[in-house]
Design brief:
CATH topology of the largest domain: Multidrug efflux transporter AcrB transmembrane fold
Helix content: 55-70%
Shape: elongated
Largest sheet: 4 strands, antiparallel
Structural class: alpha+beta
Radius of gyration: 27 Å
Number of strands: 6
Strand order of the largest sheet: 3-4-2-5
Number of helices: 13
Distance between the termini: 59 Å
CATH class of the largest domain: Mainly Alpha
Length: about 325
């Protein structure tokens, strides 16, 4: 009878927490180096955050000749210009860097239309000014910070403060590493990048909460087991579920990465990286941090006893029964 495929044997005993001396160094590298990359190389800010003009056109020929369009626009003196296929083979998205003055911004649109002429159909034109772009930057930052604070409050009430701090610290590790990837590969950082980061936070948190729940159960179950062994036991018990979940999600993202086009390429790369880095931080950052933060067994034992109610004295029970008789 078919019973399915078992990727991870149920009796796996990998010493994850025992390798924390090495994994702490790796985690520090994945946190500090991205900050260094952002400070030195910087992020490739898209028009959403930098300001500029976006023109969507549709060519009469399919697929569009991007090199021909690029050659017509590159000599107009408009600064940085990005040209990419957008959705359909004959749909093209033209991004023009922000111009110093508003009238120059309008003139840049006229120059592009003059260079392309009636060989294309102009579907939409959008101008993102510096005020709007700065509001998008602040709004995106606030969204990430509020998400992390909300997660800390939720995990604190669901478990204990040690788990809340460990969850937020590991999520900050994930966010920092993902932003560092944008800086290293010079992927365009725009509003969809913020969406990718928030998605990674939510997905990674789900994995951490599942492991935290098993740690809590084992803290109640094994009163005298050393904490290092208990953490390793909890991770190994949930390893098969974590691997299946992450592999399935990763495979689902691959079509977006290879066939989604340039418009969502940065989002797909960030998501694939976030799936991997989220699995790493759940095992090697969030769980071992309980050793540093000093999670208390008594907190979970007390909650278990209160849930069961006050213990009954057997002697009093027999005396009451005799009196009733």
């Amino acid at each position: 009878m078919f019973r399915g495929i078992t990727l991870i044997p149920p009796d796996t005993k990998i010493d994850f927490v025992g390798q924390r001396a090495i994994t702490w160094l790796v985690s520090a590298f994945l946190t500090v180096v991205p900050l260094f990359l952002v400070a030195t190389i910087g992020l490739n800010m898209g028009i959403d955050f930098q300001g500029g003009t976006l023109i969507e056109v549709q060519t009469k020929e399919s697929p569009a000749n991007l090199s021909d369009i690029r050659s017509k626009i590159s000599g107009l003196g408009l600064g940085e210009v990005q040209i990419q296929e957008f959705g359909a083979p004959n749909a093209v998205l033209i991004r023009i860097a922000s111009q110093p003055k508003e009238e120059e911004q309008q003139a840049s649109i006229a120059k592009v239309k003059g260079a392309l002429g009636d060989t294309v159909e102009y579907r939409r034109t959008e101008i993102v000014g510096p005020t709007i772009s700065s509001e998008l930057i602040s709004g995106g930052t606030v969204a990430v910070v509020v998400a992390l604070l909300g997660i800390m409050i939720y995990v604190w009430f669901r478990f204990e403060w040690q788990f809340a701090v460990a969850a937020v610290a590991s999520l900050v590790h994930d966010v920092t590493a993902t932003i560092g990837l944008y800086a290293l590969l010079q992927l365009e950082f725009n509003v969809s990048s913020i969406a990718a980061i928030l998605t990674i936070i939510g997905y990674s948190l789900n994995d951490k909460v599942v492991i935290f729940d098993r740690i809590r159960e084992n803290l109640r179950k094994y009163k005298r087991m050393p904490l290092v062994k208990l953490l390793d036991l909890s991770i190994n018990e949930m390893l098969s579920r974590a691997v299946l979940t992450h592999v399935t999600t990763f495979l689902a993202m691959l079509p977006f990465l290879f066939f989604g086009g340039e418009a969502i390429y940065g989002f797909a790369v960030a998501m694939c990286f976030g799936i991997v880095i989220g699995a790493y931080s759940s095992i090697f950052v969030a769980s071992p941090m309980q050793l540093i933060l000093g999670v208390r067994r008594e907190a979970f034992s007390a909650s278990t006893e209160s849930a069961k109610g006050p213990a009954k004295d057997p002697a009093k029970g027999r005396a009451g029964a005799a009196a009733g008789a």
